[in-house]
Amino acid sequence: MSIDRAAVDHRPTNSDVYAHDEETVHVRLKTKRGNVERVRLLHADKFDWPESATRTPMRLVGHDEQYDYWQLAVTPPNRRLCYAFHLKSGEERLWLTEWGFEAGTIDDLPTAGERRSLHYFEFPFLHPSNVADPPDWVQDAVFYQIFPERFENGDPSRNPDSVADWGDSPTSDSFFGGDLQGIIDRLDHLDDLGVTALYLTPVFESSSNHKYNTTDYTRIDPQFGDEETLRELVEAAHDLDIRVMLDGVFNHCGRRFEPFQDVVEHGADSEYADWFHVHEFPISFEPRPSYDAFGFEPYMPKLNTENPEVRSYLLDVATYWVEEFGIDGWRLDVANEVDHAFWRDLRREVKAIDPDTYILGEVWHDARPWLHGDQFDAVMNYPFSYAVYEFLTEAEIDASTFADKCTRFLMRYPDRTNRSLFNLLGSHDTERLLHRCGGDERTFRLAMLLLFTYPGAPCVYYGDEVGMTGGDDPDCRRTMVWDETEQNRDLLAFVRRLISLRTDTHPLRRGSLSFDRDLTDGDRLVYRRRSDDGSVAVAINRGSDPVRLPADALDDEMIVLSTGSDAVRSADSGDHLLSPSSGVVTR
């Protein structure tokens, strides 16, 4: 079998070769699935070439429907790395260098140019500042997303006019009176659940219930409280070792934002005219706004973040809430529509105050341009979300295809970034998970099992833990159910066990992931998380019939969590039978 050269791919960029830590470089290569038997990496210091060159086998770390992925961790001598790949398939032996392909054995180095290492790939120097270094705490975190207006009404004196009754069906314009005091009052629920970080949707002054159309970035919305209420919330959460991340809406503002109102009033003569992307004056709102906006929503004008005054204003906002109130992170709304230079500035200024601040971008697709270590620490992992939907809630793909998708996603980013991604299965922007599951609690439990055993920081959307449901916005923004007689207490206990399992199990927080390709097929998904502290195995059967697992697939049958009391039983052969719509974690 000859090597398919067109399918061999390596680019000396952040996803294919990157600084894993201050001493280690990860090198990756992509080849056609099943086409290459072995890959070895030739590597050395370019100034000591080829005398010190080392030939090291690369590890096949996974595959998707098209490609095999190879990876190797290298400690470069003197922090400089020069390298080439040697591929073997049948009788063919092939070198890959920066200049292309060349036939040759592993002992016959590729033809040298005028400089002996000129046409090899290079990682020129391992600078510690280039290491993708998300805050260490994120890898261990369990997030909980709160839509403050719907979580708890802790201070009725702050209620806006015409508050609906708690528990009524929400509309786009409904107000129910949820506030920051309500979150403070319910921190015991979150602490008991095992949550270690909160993500609050916007809390700054705004005319809407969702607050994504900011009126004043320097003021807490009076409906929610004031600056002292936020300070009390952050301090109370920190006393429980719970961190607090706020939502920064820097792509656009609200129509009532004072600088925009000045432009509406004075047109091109306004000192703020260049704060926005205005196509023509005077400002018009219908049928579509005469300025750039979020979507085509006239009440959300887009900010011109390339304007120095806008940049200065927003950077002051971003640093103020970190420095003065001790918040632990920013979730950045519509992050892919803001220029990269602004995000670089934001990162530099925020991290100068507190390097442990988590900077999370809302990017729903491949986010590599934002994850070079100079902008975001991580992004919201919607590709994972939709893969879970396709596999479990919609049954559109089988287990093998799900594993292929996940492998491809994991190969997009450095390993440390993958462990800091924000994993979610529902939010204020999507249908609730139980709704997607058609109300089927067994499927819900399998999805949550996947969420808490997959690399990255899991996030629970408020109320999912007690069985809340709801379709698209605004139905997914129902008021939190606090009456225990209306809560699903069995689901609550299950989610609590999941959180405890992840918190207590090092491989689930920081371990690598590998799919068992011999056992992953059809309705059966089997994978393992490994770290220096051991390993755990996860097995899921989404189907309506039992599936068989070999006796050695479940780690001495020590079940540490299952989705049901009868999830696993022994077969006559000594193998295991995994019950329909069941999952287990063993170690």
Layout: helices, strands, pairs:
Elements: E1 17-19, E2 25-32, E3 38-44, E4 54-57, E5 59-63, E6 67-74, E7 81-89, E8 92-97, E9 100-103, E10 121-123, E11 143-146, H1 180-185, H2 187-193, E12 197-200, E13 204-206, E14 214-220, H3 227-239, E15 243-248, H4 258-266, H5 308-325, E16 329-332, H6 340-353, E17 358-361, E18 378-379, H7 382-393, H8 399-410, H9 415-418, E19 422-424, H10 433-436, H11 441-453, E20 457-461, H12 489-504, H13 506-510, E21 512-515, E22 524-531, E23 534-541, E24 547-549, E25 559-562, E26 568-570, E27 576-578, E28 582-586
Parallel strand pairs: 11-12, 11-20, 12-15, 15-16, 16-17, 17-18, 19-20
Antiparallel strand pairs: 1-2, 2-6, 3-4, 3-7, 5-6, 7-8, 7-10, 8-9, 13-14, 21-22, 22-23, 23-28, 24-27, 25-28, 26-27
Helix pairs in contact: 5-6, 7-8, 7-11, 11-12
Tell me what you see in this structure.
- The protein is α+β, with helices and mostly antiparallel strands and 587 residues long.
- Among the domains are: 5-130, Immunoglobulins (Immunoglobulin-like); 254-291, Alpha-Beta Complex (Oligo-1,6-glucosidase, domain 2), CATH 3.90.400.
- Helices cover 23% and strands 23% of the residues.
- It is built from 13 helices and 28 strands.
- The strands form 6 sheets. An 8-stranded parallel β-sheet has the order 18-17-16-15-12-11-20-19. Strands 3, 4, 7, 8, 9 and 10 form a 6-stranded antiparallel β-sheet that branches. Strands 21-22-23-28-25 form a 5-stranded antiparallel β-sheet.
- Strand 5 and strand 6 form a beta hairpin.
- The longest helix has 18 residues, at 308-325.
- The radius of gyration is 26 Å and the shape is globular.
